[in-house]
Write a structure and sequence with these properties.
- The structure is a single chain.
- The chain folds into 2 domains: 149 residues, no CATH class; 118 residues, Cyclophilin (Beta Barrel).
- By secondary structure, the chain is of the alpha+beta class.
- The protein is 16% helix and 31% strand.
- The radius of gyration is 20 Å and the shape is globular.
- The strands form 3 sheets. Strands 1, 2, 3, 4, 5, 6, 7, 8 and 9 form a 9-stranded antiparallel beta sheet that branches.
- Keywords: ATP-binding, Hydrolase, Nucleotide-binding.
- One of its GO terms (molecular function) is hydrolase activity.
- It holds the Pfam family CT_A_B.
- It comes from Shewanella violacea (strain JCM 10179 / CIP 106290 / LMG 19151 / DSS12).
- This is Carboxyltransferase domain-containing protein.
Length: 309
């Protein structure tokens, strides 16, 4: 078991999300940076979909009530066990009764704490992920608070620290043209692909709100609500794009100008308010190649982990 001493700004239990319920209006939820959670889980011997903690800025402190192995990936935090500093992205051991302190981030936005055995909260609709907007899943359907005691899964038999290099971040976000791209003016289509968009401080787990030159349609349109998904880029009447993320709604009536490819969604999880990003037009084949690159990364990672065990 772990006990929350300092909860951070917005810390939630997340796995890779819940599938099969979008037709009921239930968002996927899950880690915004799926690759970071998967990396953390592999380093501590968990299945990819094991639940961990997603940290969003601030100071987070945990007291461990059993010996455990843990790792922190994603955004770079200062990591300490007591007064001892720990490397980011490495598996380390902590003893029962010790306190883990995380302060940051120095770079990035969201970090992922994986513990051997996983965070063992109840499964709700096929997932342990927290969907705060619906008070669903995770620990009591909310962000963690001081005094929360979170159960852990069965302790694993691990022998030594190991670490991994995370793939580098860039502000280039690859995207496919959306079904309503042609409804926008030629100038707006050009602006969308050529501009640097600034991340708004109104962004959250539902969506990354962007600010820049307003986009406009050739003529007013009345669209029926239609299915949307994480990565969908909608343009409301303000002309400022919104990239839907894991907690975003399941349907929407705003025109969809583009869709961020799955392989780059993690970058949006790591952008801070004020950061700038630029969309790059790619083909479906290039999107598939990008997913394959991630598959190869995790294949090589697992081989390296197995060779160190």
């Amino acid at each position: 078991m772990i006990e929350v001493l300092t909860p951070g700004f917005h810390t939630t239990v997340q796995d890779l999300g819940r599938t099969g319920y979008r037709h009921l209006g239930v968002s996927v939820s899950g880690a915004l940076d799926r690759q970071a959670l998967m990396l953390a889980n592999r380093l501590v011997g968990n299945p990819d979909n094991a639940a961990g903690l997603e940290l969003t800025a601030g100071t987070f402190e945990l007291k461990f009530h059993r010996d455990a192995w843990f790792t922190l990936t994603g955004a770079k935090y200062e990591i300490k066990i007591g007064a001892r500093e720990i490397w980011h992205g490495w598996r380390n051991k902590i003893q029962a009764g010790e306190t883990l302190s995380l302060r940051g981030p120095k770079s990035g936005m969201r970090a992922y704490l994986a513990i051997d055995g996983g965070v063992d909260v109840s499964i709700c609709l096929g997932s342990r992920s927290t969907l705060v907007t619906a008070a669903l899943g995770g620990h009591l359907g909310r962000a963690l608070k001081i005094g929360d005691r979170i159960p852990l899964g069965e302790k694993l038999s691990l022998s030594k620290p190991i670490g991994a290099v995370q793939r580098g971040y860039s502000s280039e976000i690859r995207a496919l043209p959306g079904p309503e791209m042609a409804l926008f003016t030629q100038e707006s289509r050009k602006v969308f692909w050529s501009s640097q968009w600034q991340v708004s401080n109104e962004s959250n787990r539902m969506g990354a709100r962007l600010s820049g030159q307003a986009l406009s349609l050739e003529q007013e349109q009345s669209l029926n609500s239609h299915a949307v998904m994480p990565g969908t880029i909608q343009v409301p009447p303000s002309g400022q794009p919104i990239v839907l993320l894991a907690d975003g709604q399941t349907t929407g009536g705003y025109p969809k100008i583009a869709t961020v490819i799955e392989a780059d969604l993690w970058k949006l999880a790591q952008t801070r308010p004020g950061d700038k990003l630029q969309f790059t037009h790619v083909s479906p084949n290039q999107a598939e190649d990008a997913n394959y690159e991630w598959q190869q990364y995790f294949y090589r990672l697992q081989k390296a982990i197995d060779s160190c065990s």
